[in-house]
Amino acid sequence: MCAVQEEALCGSLERRGLSDLNRIGRLRRVERGETIAWAGEESRNCANILSGLFKLSASTADGREQTVGLLYPADFVGRPYAPRTDYNVTALSEAEICVFPRPAFEETLESDSALEREFLRRTLTALDEARSRQLMLARQTAEQRIARFLLDMAKKMGGARPTPGGPRTFDLPLSRGAIADVLGLTIETVSRQMTKLKAARIIALPGGRAVTIIREAELRGLTAE
Amino acid sequence: MCAVQEEALCGSLERRGLSDLNRIGRLRRVERGETIAWAGEESRNCANILSGLFKLSASTADGREQTVGLLYPADFVGRPYAPRTDYNVTALSEAEICVFPRPAFEETLESDSALEREFLRRTLTALDEARSRQLMLARQTAEQRIARFLLDMAKKMGGARPTPGGPRTFDLPLSRGAIADVLGLTIETVSRQMTKLKAARIIALPGGRAVTIIREAELRGLTAE
DNA sequence: CGCCTTCTTGACTCCTGTCAAGTCCCGTGG
DNA sequence: CCACGGGACTTGACAGGAGTCAAGAAGGCG
């Protein structure tokens, strides 16, 4: 039943506990662009992502948006132990999720210490990531952010390499606008930086949302990390 | 023994568990400016803050620094379940901490589910805060950051109000440089913004690191949240 | 009182945001 | 098959906020 069982939260469970969580979970298909949780709303459900990509975002009073995290298959969605959620969760692609009512999930956490420990580990990892994104947003230039983003995406997306160690091509699962939201930039700046990298022949943009990383070492050099 | 017992992590424990944690903890005094954990270093210890203020920081390759979190009394320091820590932890004032070896702390977490649950809650809160700081660093102007920072600090520091509802005065526990690191700005920009707020008679700067919030409503209006 | 750090202020630069046209891409429908 | 339309993307011109560099002033500690 659970397509991402080895990696997902429920994958850490032994047979018994797993069936507990599966029993309360309900499969749901989500359309691209659909928002499954709104900031300020009561936190009623939690979920595991089975497939697809989501963004976790907040917006300023004047309407500009910032993505504070990307969620991939096997990642967890929701905020246990809080009455409300502070962030929107929106699908960036078609997706499937496994939804639990929050109180039931909390009870399962409390009765299954292996699950709870795994959840704690994941939360600690998410915290490290959120802090690393703070450093990026506060101190990196647009060029450094784009370089880091492309490398991260290449890693996440896999992508074909015609020759071993050679250029790698993959499709960005995000629009320019969504990338801008993630990196704390504007669409125009993202576009200009991509054009600049293309002009420098560090990447190629074969069309659509495809990206080819031609000279990975140079790109890595631009991240200055 | 535990001066912040009601609030600190160990305060959530029942007598039995508490004594477990106290048995492995060791009191330590820390000087202002002292760094008790270095990024990239092996994660050997965890600690509870008993008194004082710490910053959690990272730096870019070119040496600029960013504070990714402030740690107050009763807050937890360290990274269980990871071999290395990614951040520096530095005392911004004289401080006292209660130190546990990381493996012993992990064992205690695993054997005491109430402690583990409390630790999970704290980690979730820290995650929310880290995400909220992402929004600030990505999308707020210098003026908005300063306004929010002053209001946050006023709340944390308490501070005397000569007349109820009237102006409130408190001492900033951070230097201008430390504030700049927290807000993702430079010392000069912090200084200029403070001067601007002073000129607008929204705050006063009586000397030293003291701040008086004269018109709190206006200051709150500037945060645009 | 004097030194040294911290803070303030000024002049200038530059990166990124804003506003405004285009251009590309792709699916739809004639 | 190709023209059309609309969203996504690119490009240009310009402005402005924050960074950088450089003095100076203020404050604290010996």
UniProtKB/TrEMBL annotation, chains A, B:
Record's keyword terms, sorted: DNA-binding, Transcription, Transcription regulation
Source taxon at top rank: Bacteria
Pfam families: cNMP_binding, HTH_Crp_2
Residues annotated as domain HTH crp-type: 140-217
InterPro entries linked to this entry: cNMP-bd_dom (IPR000595), cNMP-bd_dom_sf (IPR018490), Env_Response_Regulators (IPR050397), HTH_CRP (IPR012318), RmlC-like_jellyroll (IPR014710), Tscrpt_reg_HTH_Crp-type_CS (IPR018335), WH-like_DNA-bd_sf (IPR036388), WH_DNA-bd_sf (IPR036390)
Gene3D superfamilies (alphabetical): Jelly Rolls (2.60.120.10), Winged helix-like DNA-binding domain superfamily/Winged helix DNA-binding domain (1.10.10.10)
Protein name stated in the entry: Crp/Fnr family transcriptional regulator
